[in-house]
């Protein structure tokens, strides 16, 4: 129950970010329409690499699948399994792969940031880039938090001799959080990269 309440508070946090994003977008679009110029949003979104972001999003979505494989394995008490068959992975294999995929996603976000910084775009450039870096940056912080949680679950699985019910609950709670982070990113991705 505590996890659901906490995720609900996180949902409200991201809802506030979305509201700010759309409010700033609307205000700058109205200014552009009044002056018959290209809107700040239209001019800024041209600098986003949609192909790269799509690949990065696919990596994060795939990590949600491997995360669920790990949670399912924990439910059946399967801590260790065969690396050769993903359907027979244990908690460890699935969560290690999820951690690697999540790390690749964060690395992709960092790469995108440095590419944009190299083009001269920063948080202080204008309202669009402030909203972009704020929304994606807070999401990135949440992903890093999920990666730390995976390390905790993995360390705990290696430190104990037997798999307990508490470890299964922890694996499921971490999977709920990870799926939440994925869903938030899918919405962010659609709004930032495709909604013009």
From TrEMBL:
Coiled coil residues, start to end: none
GO molecular function, one term: cytochrome-c oxidase activity
GO CC entries: plasma membrane
SUPFAM superfamilies cross-referenced by the UniProt entry: Cytochrome c oxidase subunit III-like
Catalysed reactions, as listed in the record: 4 Fe(II)-[cytochrome c] + O2 + 8 H(+)(in) = 4 Fe(III)-[cytochrome c] + 2 H2O + 4 H(+)(out)
The protein's Enzyme Commission number: 7.1.1.9
Top EC category: translocase
Residues spanning the membrane: 6-24, 94-111, 131-155, 176-195
GO biological process, one term: aerobic electron transport chain
Keywords from the UniProt entry: Cell membrane, Membrane, Translocase, Transmembrane, Transmembrane helix
Boundaries of every Heme-copper oxidase subunit III family profile domain copy: 1-196
Family: Belongs to the cytochrome c oxidase subunit 3 family.
Protein name per its UniProtKB record: cytochrome-c oxidase
Organism: Tessaracoccus antarcticus
Source taxonomy: Bacteria, Bacillati, Actinomycetota, Actinomycetes, Propionibacteriales
């Amino acid at each position: 129950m505590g996890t659901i309440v906490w995720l609900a508070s996180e949902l409200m946090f991201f809802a506030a970010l979305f509201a700010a994003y759309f409010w700033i977008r609307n205000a700058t679009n109205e200014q552009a329409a009044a002056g018959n110029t290209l809107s700040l949003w239209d001019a800024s979104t041209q600098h986003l690499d949609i192909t790269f972001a799509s690949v990065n999003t696919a990596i994060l979505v795939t990590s949600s699948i491997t995360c669920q494989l790990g949670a399912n394995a924990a439910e059946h008490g399967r801590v260790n399994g065969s690396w050769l068959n993903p359907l027979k992975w244990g908690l460890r294999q699935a969560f290690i792969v999820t951690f690697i995929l999540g790390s690749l996603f964060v690395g992709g976000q960092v790469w995108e940031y440095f590419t944009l910084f190299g083009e001269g775009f920063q948080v202080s450039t204008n309202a669009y880039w402030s909203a972009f870096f704020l929304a994606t940056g807070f999401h990135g912080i949440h992903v890093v938090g999920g990666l730390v949680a995976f390390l905790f679950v993995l360390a705990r699985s290696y430190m104990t001799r037997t798999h307990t019910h508490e470890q299964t609950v922890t694996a499921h709670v971490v999977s709920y959080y990870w799926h939440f982070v994925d869903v938030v990113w899918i919405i962010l991705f659609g709004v930032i990269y495709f909604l013009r």
